[in-house]
Every structure is written in structure tokens, then in C-alpha cells.
Amino acid sequence: MVPLKLAVAVFLALLVVNSVVAEDPYRFFTWNVTYGTIWPLGVPQQGILINGQFPGPDIYSVTNDNLIVNVFNSLDEPFLLSWNGIQNRRNSFEDGVYGTTCPIPPGKNMTYILQVKDQIGSFYYFPSLAFHKAAGGFGGIRILSRPRIPVPFPDPADDYTILIGDWYKKNHTALKAVLDGGRKLPLPDGILINGRGPNGVTFTVEQGKTYRLRISNVGLQNTLNFRVEGHKMTLVEVEGTHTLQTTYSSLDVHVGQSYSVLITANQEAKDHYIVVSSRFTSPVLTTTGVLHYSGSNTPVSGPPPGGPTIQIDWSLNQARSIRTNLSASGPRPNPQGSYHYGMINTTRTIRLASSAGQVNGKQRYAVNSVSFVPLDTPLKLLDYFKVGGFKVGSISDAPSGGGIYQDTSVLGTDYRKFIEIIFENNEDIVQSWHLDGYSFWVVGMDGGQWTQASRNVYNLRDAVSRCTTQVYPKSWTAIYLALDNVGMWNLRTEFWARQYLGQQLYMRVYTDSTSLRDEYPIPRNARLCGKVAGRHTRPL
């Protein structure tokens, strides 16, 4: 009898060991968020630092890794981090925007529990509250493929994160006060590369070697053009999708977007300009960095190379040329083209139009005439605890043409449906839209008004799948979306002043039959605030 018990005990122990061994790896991060004085454009201002760094540290990970990020808030105001492009599958509680997650109070901490499930690619994190994004607190995220998954290009000699963005000399508190007063912000004062001004950052390369540049526009409003003097760039990945390897002399990166390019050090062994300039602005803002050939003593000289400025067609044609590499593997070994999105019938069409106007004498921005106002409790928590306080369906499926009004806009959508969303831009600026929790196929974009006949020009074969897309002035962009990630997800403009003043909404992806198999329960360490403060994250 004893040997049998021993055998059973050993068997159970092996089961436990095997389950631990089979579990996806964990990576742990401890971050302290503080204020600090920074001088990115030559004048001192208050920045937000993570572990004393501006920008914050990169997150390195591999597909399916569990990321445990313990964030200590040493600011004097509430704080949240969000994860641009990280899908947080079945777990919108961890998304880090105010509609899903309670802020971290001053002097407190919160541990984010993330999993980069079935994802690869280049993304970034950023602070989502109180216009903190204008003070820093952002950093890069890279998700590498698992070792057994083929990547459609050789390993580069090195892999650089390049965070570009427009920037103000004023503190974020002053900018927030302007917006709270109902006024618009002026044009930013300059552009940063990895938190530095002109020629403030250098990337070293060796003759003949190839490097990967992960470029993210973490700025506040402007499309930026990226180029390297004398060098071609081969696009290989866009927000988690391996692309056709098209070569470009320069690349438009709209606010909120991320790209990976390969660049080969095949030019004269000297220093070359890296140039980032604003698009569709007057005046044009420009900054520079340096691509330094190892061993060279020849500095950059002369004016930096110019780039496109106001040409819409140039940018539109480039956007249409970015397509999925159908034969390449994604996060799994099967080819990216094995999912035939163009052969699936859509069950619903949602048209979303942005607008700007005054409400009670103050500047506001809206989607389908609704200017979003937050409640005192995250929507996801109100929904989870069945407290109520908001209405699913408080925004219509199509523009009404009416005046702007304020409401907490929540769009109800059905889990596991396949839908079409049309972003309509009747304004004179480039819009940039992001959806948390998802990637979507950008099937079409063009000028003028969208009609049903516009579907005749959709790309139903190799459209790029990404999480942030641009909409050109007086134009439309169409996406296809598989609603396979249950939860409450933020759909917003990446023009951050417009987001702050109402150009956003939440998509509630749910059905009455949704169960715990479809959505993870609320994390045990979740902060509870507002109307759900004091409740338990698990039944007693």
C-alpha cells in the first residue's frame, strides 16, 4: 500500500513540475515614477521619469511572456500607465486607461499583470491620465518571436528603439490648464528623438552591417517623417505584423504608430544625419540625430536632407503600399496569410465621424456628435460589479450631423462577431485612431465621402493588420475587425488634446453568454475606487 501511495505522490509531483515547466516565462519589472528636471529643448521643465530615466526603460519580451510590472507612484497626483498595442487578451482590467483601471494614488503602487499572448512586434507604453504624456513617462516595448518561429529576415547586428514625438517647452500642468480652460493648444515647440533635441542622440553602426530600428511616434499630435541621410530603409514589421519588405527613402509615422525598418551601413564611413520633421504643419518642425559609423572622425555637416511637407497624396500612396507578408510567420508558425479575413462576411457597419466645436463656451471634440466625459469610476468596474451608471448604446452607429453634446459614450458590440468600421474625417487635419485590445485590417482609405461603393476598392487579400491607423483630411479609412477579445476597450484619437477633450469612446465587447472561459476574473490585486471602493475582487 505504501509503494502505491508513493507512486501516486511522485506522479502528482511530476504533474506539478511539468505544469510549471510548461508555463510561459515570467519577467519582472519594478518601476518608480518621479518628477525630475529635464532640458530636451534647452530650457528646464518638469518631466516624468521612470527609475530616473527619460524616456523610461524598454521592455524586452518574447511571445507569450508574462510581464509583472510593479509601478510605484511617487508623484503628487494619481497616475496610470497604458500599453499601446499590447492586447491584454481577456483582461481589459489591466489596460491602464481610466475607463478600465483605477489610478494609482500618490505614494502607492500597483502591479500590472500582463501577458503578450500571441504577439510579436514593436509597441510602447505611456502615461494615460491628466495630460502626463506631455511630460514623458513613455518607453518602448519589443516582443521577439519564440526561437522556433521563423522570422523573414536575418538577425540584425543590433536592434534600436527610436521614440520620436513633438514636444512643448511648457510643463504638462500648464498645457492641461489651457485645455481645462476650454482653449486649444498652439503648435508644439519642437521634436524629440529618444527624449533629446537636435543632434542629442547618436546610434553607432559598423560598415557593412544591418540594423533594426523600431520607430514609434509617441508625440501629442503631429505626423512625423523619418529619414536617414543617404540610406534606404526596408520596412519589415508594423505593430506586430511582418510586412512585404518594401524599401523607402523616408517614412511617414503618424502619431501613435510604430514601425520596424532594416538599415544597412553601406555608405561612406562618416556621420550621417537622422532627420525627423513634421508633416502637414506650418511652420515645419525639424530635429536631427546622428548615425555614427564606428571609427569615423567626420561629423555631420551641411543642412540635413529635406523631406515631404504637405503632400497628402505622397503619404496616402505610401500607406497603401504597406502590406502584409502573407507567407511569413507571425507569433505562431502558420503563415500570416492563413487567416482569410477578406472571405468573412461582416455583420455590422459602424461609421465614426470626428468633429470639433464649442460646448458651453469651451472647446470640445466628439465622435458622432458625442464628446466623451469620464465617470468617477472606471466603466469596466461598474460593468463587472453590475453597478450601472452608464448606458451601452449611448453613441450611434453613424454620424447624426447634430451639434456636439457631452455623454459617457459606450458602444455595445457582440463578442465573436466580424464587423466593419469606417472612420470619417470631414476636417482639415490628419486624424490618427487607436483601438486598445485589438489589431484590425486596414482594408481601404481614400478621399471624399465613404459610400457602399467604396467597398469596391478594398484590399481583401493582404491589408496590413495593426492597432493605429491614420485618416487623411476630407477622407475616410475602413477597417475590418474580428471581435475576439472580450472586455471594455478604449477607441480614441491619438491627437492627445482632442482625446483629453472628448474624442474617444469605449467598445463593450460582450454577449449574454460570455463566461469565465472567455474573460479572466478581476485580478486579486486590482485597485477599486469610486462607486466600487471597498468591494471584494473575489466572493467571500
Structure description:
The chain has 540 residues and is mainly beta. 9% of the residues lie in helices and 37% in strands. The longest helix has 21 residues, at 2-22. The radius of gyration is 23 Å and the shape is globular. It starts with a helix and ends in a 30-residue tail after the last strand.
Furnish the topology, listing elements before pairings.
Blueprint: H1 2-22, E1 26-38, E2 45-50, E3 59-62, E4 66-73, E5 81-84, E6 109-115, E7 121-127, E8 139-144, E9 158-167, H2 172-180, E10 190-193, E11 202-205, E12 210-217, E13 224-228, E14 233-238, E15 241-242, E16 247-248, E17 250-253, E18 258-264, E19 272-278, E20 286-293, H3 312-321, E21 349-359, E22 362-367, E23 370-372, H4 379-384, E24 405-407, E25 410-414, E26 418-425, E27 431-435, E28 440-447, E29 465-466, E30 468-471, E31 475-482, E32 487-493, H5 496-500, E33 504-510
Parallel strand pairs: 1-4, 3-8, 9-12, 11-20, 21-26, 23-24, 25-33
Antiparallel strand pairs: 1-2, 4-6, 5-7, 7-8, 9-10, 12-18, 13-17, 13-19, 14-15, 14-16, 14-18, 19-20, 21-22, 26-31, 27-30, 27-32, 28-29, 28-31, 32-33
Query: Major sheet, described briefly?
Result: 7 strands, mixed
Helix percent reads under 10%
Mean pLDDT: 94
Pick out the low-confidence regions.
1-21
How many runs of DSSP E, i.e. beta strands?
Answer: 33
User: What is the CA-atom radius of gyration, in angstroms?
Assistant: 23 Å
Overall, the morphology is globular
Percent strand = 35-45%
Q: What is the first-to-last residue Cα distance?
A: 39 Å
Number of helices: 5
